[in-house]
Design brief:
mainly alpha; 107 residues; 3 helices
Length: 107
């Protein structure tokens, strides 16, 4: 499952980078996705639209809202860090407390 998540995040990043390379970072500079080789129907494009990192500047023309894109990435990093801390604390608990119980019951 982790690999699938990584693939989705990579696809999102590729879409975002295409808009950055095209300079499409404001409503005035919005572009047609097909002009920069992007398919917004793919998982990366749909997710960026849903999270408002991609916005429609004019009918059919889109741009990357850099603030939203950076906020989305920052939020994901914080969530990943929090999960790592929780997993680390749980592992530490099971190594210290959980290990002691299993040794006592083995005697």
């Amino acid at each position: 499952m982790g690999a699938a998540v990584a693939v989705v995040l990579i696809k999102e990043r590729h879409v975002a980078e295409a808009f950055l390379r095209a300079g499409a970072t404001s409503a005035e500079r919005a572009v047609l996705p097909e002009d920069i080789g992007v398919d917004l129907g793919g998982v990366g494009g749909r997710r960026l639209l849903r999270h408002a990192a991609l916005r429609e500047g004019a009918p059919g023309r889109y741009y990357l809202d850099e603030r939203s894109w950076h906020a989305l990435r920052s939020t994901r990093r914080r969530i990943a860090f929090a999960l790592m801390v929780i997993i680390g604390v749980a592992a530490l608990y099971f190594v210290t407390v959980g290990g002691g119980h299993s040794m006592a019951s083995a005697r």
